[in-house]
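User: I'm curious what two different proteins look like when written out as structure tokens. Can you demonstrate?

Assistant: Sure. I'll show them one after the other, since each token string lines up with its own sequence. Here's the first protein:
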Amino acid sequence: MKQVIILVLLMVGLFGSVITPAFADMEPLLEKLHEKGVLSDEEYQELRTEARAQRRAEALKEARDAEKAAKKTESAPTELSGRFDKEGLFTWESGDKENSISLIGRVGIFW
């Protein structure tokens, strides 16, 4: 049963990522179908409203992601990252690269 659920989720993820960009240019297609009489006025309005809602949702998601990235960048000066220097010293460095501290010396353990 778990295998079936995993397979379904993988397929949704795969096809969902392929189908999503198709909504971006859907309005010109809808206009052509409406002009040729394939879509009625009601169907055209409904599909156009759905396409616009999809674009709005994507724009909101992108804006939220950009806002999260900006907040992470703002908090970067308070974050510390550790690394080894060229000389083999361990150094902690602030996110804005203005402050750092290195450990120098030996650690000896005697039994």
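Here's a second, unrelated protein for contrast:
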Amino acid sequence: MTLNEADFRTLLDTTHNIVIAFFGANWCGPCKVFSLVFEKVSARYGETSGVTMVKLDVDECTQLCDDLNVSLVPTVILFKDSQVAARQNGGFPNEKGLEQFIVTFK
């Protein structure tokens, strides 16, 4: 699911789930590649999994990116209890890497 900045902030304030946020851009080649990995993994996590996976466009959420020090794309940030728990700049090369990142905090 793709969110804007306001909806993302609301999600963080209201969810009890782990939130995995993928910060990318339409013009970013590596983001397009990682987006396929992200979509496949997010399809495996339903609403009852305790994990919410969202995409954000860095060009549309500049204040949020500043607040979170997102300066490279793709960047994946894992939020637990609405706080940054982990971050991975550059995404993951495959589904297994992303899934291990999630399982570590689940």
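A detail about the second structure: The chain has a mean pLDDT of 95.
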